[in-house]
Amino acid sequence: MPASTESIRNIGIVAHIDAGKTTTTERILYYAGASHKMGQVDEGTTQTDFDPEEAKRGITIYSAAVTCHWKDCTINIIDTPGHVDFTAEVQRSLRVLDGAVVVFSAVEGVEAQSETVWRQADEFRVPRLCFVNKMDRIGADFDRTLGQVRDRLKGNPVVLTIPIGAGHEFKGIIDLLQMKALYFDRETMGREIEVTDIPEDMRETAARWRSKLLDSVSMLDDEVMTAYLEGEEVTAEQIHRVLRAGTLARELQPTFCGSSLDYCGVQPVLDAVNNYLPSPLDVPPVEGINPSPKKGEDEHAIRKVDKNEPFAGLIFKIAADKHADMCFVRVYSGVLKSGSRALNPRTGKKELISQIWHIQAGHREKIETDAVDAGGIAGVIGPKQVVTGDTLCDQKHPIILESINFPETVISMA
Ligand code: GDP
């Protein structure tokens, strides 16, 4: 059964190199039931770094798109490259995703490339969550990192989990929605989570953070403000509603902490992807240029996320597979069908859509499908004369989706 458009999350995980993007992605894939055996970055066996050359170099050169499932949602993770040389590649990924999880290291804090990526996410109007990783490392400082997100990135992090201890003393997290302590068991790779009352010595701190959360939420919503001022209980549903609206409006970033190495703190991030990040229906319709407008027709074209519209999709990455190149396509409107021909308006050529695959993380398995509806992402085999950034579209309704503007200064930034 194809996923309903409301339940799709097209997300990216973005970070400065070494902040733990690959490890966090692995944990997400693991919890989302896609992975049997966890990949280990240091052994070069992770799910998203599947190119041997890439694994050898230990950096994610290009963006693979993998699909996983968490609760009611289908999450397509577009793995954005972390290396500074590939900023143009990051931009291309940001263009096709609807939301992002920004990973920071609690030791290094906000680094130069985090600023570049954050600015680009602003430019592409990408709603985001923050995950402050590496809380188990010596020198980890959650508060300092939050301060840097505010001061250097001009962000508005709204904290939903806080660490219990830091460095060698890091033991788990406190979930400020449930007001419970969560301890993760590394032996069972975080599958076993002990949920307890908040330890005595953390109660005051937790209560202070919970008040900060309610302050932030009530500032944004009159109903919550009234309830809060009158001393009524603010429900989790009310908090979710306000945080979702604030995230979509890019006024705030729900923020979490943990250690992806210890599997700790990643599950609340997955819940937040479902609860707060947009579905393809929440983002504005895609705009483009009609290359051959008929008399009286406007050059400017808009396509809605609707499977009854003519098909239009963007090739955001081409990956060399063993047998044939695979083009990763974001379908913006209509339906991409296996066996059909799609126009590449740049070349004027019709390209055959021989096969359509979903890349399921876990077994590096590809699952073939007949069609992908508007809002979805898939790997396509067949197109020959295409390059990254090309549009594929309905032959009778040509459109060139907005070209990506790469400012020179950003590309050459070190
Ligand atoms: P990326 O470059 O952002 O993709 O970062 P990686 O996920 O490859 O992580 C960089 C290094 O940091 C690897 O050696 C990881 O094992 C390590 N690492 C990642 N997350 C954590 C964490 O939460 N705690 C600790 N101690 N190490 C981590």
UniProtKB/TrEMBL annotation:
GTP binds at residues 15-22, 79-83, 133-136. Coiled coil: none annotated. Belongs to the TRAFAC class translation factor GTPase superfamily. Classic translation factor GTPase family. EF-G/EF-2 subfamily. It comes from the Bacteria. GO terms for molecular function: GTP binding; GTPase activity; translation elongation factor activity. Keywords: Cytoplasm, Elongation factor, GTP-binding, Nucleotide-binding, Protein biosynthesis. It is found in: Cytoplasm. The keyword Heme does not apply. Its main location: cytoplasm. The chain holds residues 1 to 414 of 691 of the full protein. Residues 6-281 form the Tr-type G domain. The lineage of its organism: Bacteria, Pseudomonadati, Planctomycetota, Planctomycetia, Planctomycetales. The gene is fusA_2. This is Elongation factor G. GO terms for cellular component: cytoplasm. Catalyzes the GTP-dependent ribosomal translocation step during translation elongation. During this step, the ribosome changes from the pre-translocational (PRE) to the post-translocational (POST) state as the newly formed A-site-bound peptidyl-tRNA and P-site-bound deacylated tRNA move to the P and E sites, respectively. Catalyzes the coordinated movement of the two tRNA molecules, the mRNA and conformational changes in the ribosome. The keyword Protein biosynthesis applies. One of its GO terms (biological process) is ribosome disassembly.
